[in-house]
Amino acid sequence: MTTAVPLSWYLILSAILFGLGVAGFVFRRNIITVFMSIELMLNAVNLSFVAFSYQLRQTDGHIYTFFVMVVAAAEAAVGLAIILTVFKNRATLEIDEVSDLKN
Amino acid sequence: MSQYYTATDHFVLVPAIMLALFGCAILLFDFWVFPEPKQRKWLLAFLALGEAFAGYGLWQQHTYIAGQGIAELTAFQGSLVVDGFSLFFNWMFIAAASIVALMSYRYLEVEGEHHGEYYSLILLAQCGMYFLASGADLITLFVGLELMALCFYIMVGFLRSDKRSNEAAMKYLLLGGFSSGFLAYGFSLLYGLSGSTKLSEIGVAIARRDPADPVLLLAMVTTTVGLLFKISAVPFHMWAPDAYEGAPTTVTAYLSVGSKAASIAFLLRIFLGPLASARAAWEPLLVFAAIASLTVGNLAAISQHNIKRLLAYSSISHAGYMLLGLVAGNETGIKGVAVYVLVYTFTNLGVFLVIVALRREGLVGDNIDDLAGLMHKSPGYALLMLICLLSLAGIPPTAGFIGKYYIFLSLIQAGRYVLAAAAALYVAVAIYYYFRIVRSMFMSDAEDAGAMETTFGVRVAAALTGLGTLGIGIFPEPFLRFAGQSLIR
């Protein structure tokens, strides 16, 4: 029998993934990459839910994961449509060039 | 009816079912039955019917709760709850969505982007708000929040060929998704700490934990960040001015009252429910956010020329006042937040309604100078604007005074005199920039003599918002009693 991977390792991995997502959101300048960073954050959330759920021998966390996936898919559908209209009207995907609204 | 879907479950779900059903029906009817542009008024009628059915379901819940004398009715094994709190907020959402729909018809015609989906999105967003006000489970709340937010992303970008609307939608989408990520991460940790997604069970588990537990602190901080984003409190407010300015004005109105009220309901449910025992840890965060919101919101509003942007900053400062009620934490404070949100709903809708009514071919109407001489052009709307601005500033006899009064009273009762003084000081700043608009309306000459073209719907909406703003100010007792019943116990 092999020893199981401890819960804390999953949580640390999830925290690292989440941190990478936040860093990508803050530092990357391409709209699609920024959007991908958000998806990465949501996947870190999924990992954390599944790890907890496995540890607790429950299904609630698994179910939450499904809902997060559905939400992420819906958000991608709406988000890519919005990004597409931005691209149609401006022919750019650099976030700094999309800045008509200012103080 | 099985054990997974009992009669009680159905009873609790009826308003949401009606909203979703009519939201989808509008999509289908727009496509098959009423494809002609002239027939869109039937879609508006469908929306009214949806609101009526949802309102009837809500009324039945209301009378049942009152008749049985029970505090709450839970359904779906505790995932949804009907109590005074959820009823209070859901009545408000019905009022907000109806008023927004009334003022939208002509506005969208002028913008040249009148599509049936708009009415469907109003209802579906309201369905999300229903789950935010009634949810008692992390999954329900998260899905409700996202349902509402996704509808708003689309509505903010509804003017597809308008660059500013696109940009507003994009910024709102990216920052909204970012904040949802934080919220979901905080929820995952809360689940891990408590082993349940039910708010009540999480509350019990958290009360047993050491308040200085680092994982608990991380869970609390990420959840707080996500929630503060949603109510556009400083330092997580940067999406609001852009989204408010770029969105179609009717959507800005809906966003500023509907989304704000639903997010406040969500925030109260989390902080007064599962996180209530960790108060010592989150209270400093909220005090900071409240004071920062008051400062940034009020000071940035002074220099704005675009009235929608000005109102965005004013809305940030109002989020600060609402947070102060939660910081005070006593019964007066929570009641104050509920009253404040109700007052803010009618008042802000009134202000946006005047901007919507100004919009016509060749005039956007969102610049402060566009309001110049409104008193001479159409005194009725100028008067409505005056009443609503007085109410936003918190001057009696308008409703805004009642809201602010209860917030200040609760702070004084809780012994937080410094916070009360700071909040009162910022009222003076707010009067200054609200009166810039008033001066433009009453003291300047009109730059163009074009008359305002209004429709029956806009006039009805104007009457409703004006009556709400004055009515709550002059006869506050029934509303205060209603808000008092809404306390979370």
Write the layout of secondary structure elements.
The complex is a heterodimer of chains A (103) and B (489).
Chain A: H1 7-27, H2 31-56, H3 60-90
Helix pairs in contact in A: 1-2, 2-3
Chain B: H1 7-32, H2 40-68, E1 72-75, E2 80-83, H3 84-111, H4 117-134, H5 138-156, H6 163-194, H7 199-208, H8 214-230, H9 239-246, H10 249-272, H11 279-302, H12 307-328, H13 331-358, H14 374-377, H15 379-393, H16 399-413, H17 417-443, H18 456-474, H19 477-485
Antiparallel strand pairs in B: 1-2
Structural overview:
The complex is a heterodimer of chains A (103) and B (489). By secondary structure, chain A is an all-alpha fold. Chain A has helices at 7-27, 31-56, 60-90. Chain A has a domain at 30-93: Helix Hairpins (Orthogonal Bundle). Chain A is elongated, with a radius of gyration of 18 Å. Chain A starts with 6 loop residues before the first helix and ends in a 13-residue tail after the last helix. Chain B starts with 6 loop residues before the first helix and ends with a helix. Chain B has one domain. In chain B, strands 1-2 form a two-stranded antiparallel sheet. The radius of gyration of chain B is 22 Å and the shape is globular. Chain B is an all-alpha fold and 489 residues long. In chain B, 60% of the residues are buried. The A-B interface holds A 11, 14, 18, 21-22, 25, 31, 34-35, 38, 41-42, 44-45, 48-49, 51-52, 55-56, 58, 60-61, 63-64, 67-68, 70-71, 74-75, 78-79, 82-83, 85-86, 89-90, 98-101, 103 and B 138-139, 142-143, 146, 150, 153-154, 157, 160-161, 163-164, 166-171, 173-174, 177-178, 180-182, 184-185, 187-189, 191-192, 195-197, 241-242, 245-246, 300, 303-304, 309.
